[in-house]
Amino acid sequence: MRTSKAAVLALLLLPGIGQRDPLEALRQAEGRRFAAMVRADTAALRPMLDEGLTYTHSNAMVETKESHLAAIGSRRTVYQALVPVSLSYRLVGETAIGTGIVSATGSLEGTPFEVMLRVTTVHARGEGVWRLLAWQSTRMP
C-alpha cells in the first residue's frame, strides 16, 4: 500500500504525532522559567505565565502574573537558584499537574532565604506552548 505525502503530513500534524513527549517539553519549559527567574529576565518570563496566574509563595503571599513580574523585575524578590530536586508531572488533556520538591535560594526585600519547597503546579498547553497557571509552595521543615 502506498501512502501519500499529504496523508503523512496530516498524521504528523495530529497532536502528539511526530512531536516530542509533551511532559519532556514541559520539563524543559520549567527549566527555562526557573532560569529566567534567576536572571530576573521578565521579558523572557512573561510569555511563560498565564494571564490568570495565581502564584502562592511559601509565606502565603499570593501574586498575580503582573505582581509576580513586578517583584522579580524590581529585584524585591531575588532568586539566586531554583533547582528541581524531584518534580513529576501528570498530563490531563492539555493540562499538566506537577508535584515535587524545589530548592530555592535568594532574598525577599533584602532578607535572604534558603528553603526546600514542596510544590504543586498547574500548567496549560496552548498553541504548543506551556504556561504556568498556578504555583503553590509549602516550606519543608
Describe the structure.
This protein has 141 residues and is an alpha+beta fold. It has one domain: Nuclear Transport Factor 2, Chain: A, CATH 3.10.450.50. The protein is built from four helices and six strands, in the order αααββαββββ. It has a six-stranded mixed β-sheet. Strand 1 and strand 2 form a beta hairpin. The protein is globular, with a radius of gyration of 18 Å. The termini are far apart.
List keywords for this structure.
141 residues, alpha+beta, Nuclear Transport Factor 2, Chain: A, 6-stranded mixed β-sheet, 4 helices, 48% strand, disordered N terminus
**Any idea what the shape is?**
globular
Radius of gyration: 18 Å
Helical coverage, percent range: 25-40%
Ends apart, CA distance between termini: 63 Å
Query: Which strand-content bin applies to the residues?
Result: over 45%
**Order of helical and strand elements:** HHHEEHEEEE
Largest sheet composition: 6 strands, mixed
Q: In CATH terms, what is the fold-level topology?
A: Nuclear Transport Factor 2, Chain: A
Strand count: 6
The overall average pLDDT, rounded, is 89
- CATH class, named Alpha Beta
Class of secondary structure makeup: alpha+beta
Give the neighbour order of strands across the main sheet: 2-1-6-5-4-3
List low-pLDDT spans: 1-18
Number of domains: 1
- Count of discrete alpha- or pi-helical segments spanning 4 or more residues: 4
